[in-house]
Design a protein that fits this description.
alpha/beta; globular; 9 strands
Length: about 250
Amino acid sequence: MKDLNFLKQSLIAHRGYHSKELGIPENSIPAFEKAILNNYIIELDVHILKDGNVVVFHDDNLKRMTGVDKKIKNTTYEEISKLKLYGTNYKIPLLKDVLELVCGSVPIIIELKYDVVVGKLESKLVEILNSYKGKYVVKSFSPLSVLWFRIHNPNIIRGQLSQGYFSTKNIFEKTLLKNMCFNIITKPDFVSYEVEALPNKVVQKFKDSHIVLGWTIKNQEQFNKGMKYCDNLICENFEKLKFKIF
C-alpha cells in the first residue's frame, strides 16, 4: 500500500514560494530555493517542448510570464532559455535542474499540463523521474493522464485535479469532471480540489479513505475553509498571511 503521509508534513508552496514584491517569479529556481528554506512541500507544473525537453512552467502560452506570444509546446529549450521571467534575470528551468536542486529535501507535487497527446509528457516524465530518489507525486486535470499512470506506472502516486467549473456551461465539465466521475476507472491515490468549490459531497466521501489537497489558498478566509474540508493546502502569499502552523 502506498504511503501518502508525507503529503501532510507541511504546507504546500504553489509553484514554489514566489512573490512579485520580492522579485521571485513563480516556478523559478529562487521560488523553489525559498520553499526548501521554509521546508514547504513544492508544487510545480511541467510542459514538454517540441524538442522533448521537460520544463517547469504553468501556462500553455509564454506571454504572461515572458511577453512572448507563443505556445510553449511549439518551442525548443534553446529558444526559451533566452527568455526572462517577469522581467527578472531568472529563466524557465528544466525539470531535471529543479530535481537536482531539491534533491529529496522536500516532497514535490508535479502537475502535468495537457496540451499534447496523452502519453508523450507522461512517458518522458517517468524517464526523468526514474533516477530521482526524493519523494514525489504526479497529478493532472486530465483523467486520461491519471489513467495513463494507473496502466503504465501504477506504483507512482497519482492525483486527480478538479474544480467547481463555475465559469463554464460545458455539461461534461460541470458534471463529469467536477464530480470526478472517472475516478472509478482511474483510481487516483489523492485528489487536489478547488477550495472555493467546497464542500462537495463527492470530495468529502473520497476524503473518508484518501487524502484531499485544497487549492489555491491566498488569504486567511480560504485557509480556514480549506482546513475544514482538506488534509493539506496549496498556498501562496506566505509573506503576507498568518497561517496556522501544522
